[in-house]
Amino acid sequence: MILAGGGGTRLGGQDKPMLPVAGVPMLDRVLAAVEGAALRIVVGPPREGLPAGVRTVREEPPGAGPAAATAAALGLVPRAASEDQAEAEEGPALVGLFAADLPYLTAEGVEVLLAAVESHADGAVFVDGRGKRQLLCGVWRAGALRDAVERLGAPEGRSMRAVLDGLDVVEVEWTGSGPAPYFDCDTEEDLRRADGGGDR
User: Fold this and answer.
1) Among 24, 89, 105, 183, which residue's beta carbon has the most beta carbons within 10 A?
2) Contact indicator for 77, 39 with CB cutoff of 8 Å
3) What is the pLDDT of residues 57-99, one digit of tens each?
4) Which residues contact 137 (CB under 8 A, 6 or more apart)?
5) What is the C-alpha to C-alpha distance for residues 79 and 111, in angstroms, rounded to an integer?
6) Cα 114 from Cα 25, distance rounded (Å)
7) How far is C-alpha 102 from the chain's CA centre?
8) What is the pTM of this model?
9) String of b and e for 100-113 (b: at least 16 CB within 10 Å)?
10) Does an H or E element contain 115, and which?
11) Distance of CA 101 to the CA centre of its chain
């Protein structure tokens, strides 16, 4: 699930996920990182040129924030018959939740998060050098995330911290090759740094 809404206000209202880093739109980079997923969902306004099979949905109302976007995406994820028995599942046991402005997200980074959730936690997120959780760069047990969203009630305007409060979360430090997968681009300066390709 890729959250690609928002107004890009710090970038002059541009469609931030479609801004290029090293010539490739950030949304395309995130979609490539999760290419192996059984289902890829982009939340946000309609965009042309998405890869075949990618499903799209809009949070209600548009611009209602990441909690509402998460709820909208989960509406397209089939419910699992049994979360603990993969052979009995109708839907995925695990879902990724990623912002669309992560130019350094790679399949390697996603695999690190998937491995962390195998510890039977509710989910795993990267933490930065200050120990801050990167809540829009994580992998979750589908049932746990869905339950958390439903407990929240109306998601409009609510934070991801409110959604995930009370879940058992593994905090993962990035020790892999290349820049940190959770580095996001909110400003022109961030884009310039990302284009430079150095460690973040």
Assistant:
1) 105
2) yes
3) 999 998 899 999 999 999 999 986 544 444 344 567 999 999 9
4) 97, 98, 99, 102, 105, 109, 113, 125, 126, 181, 182
5) 23
6) 25
7) 9
8) 0.89
9) bbbbbbbeebbebb
10) helix 107-117
11) 9
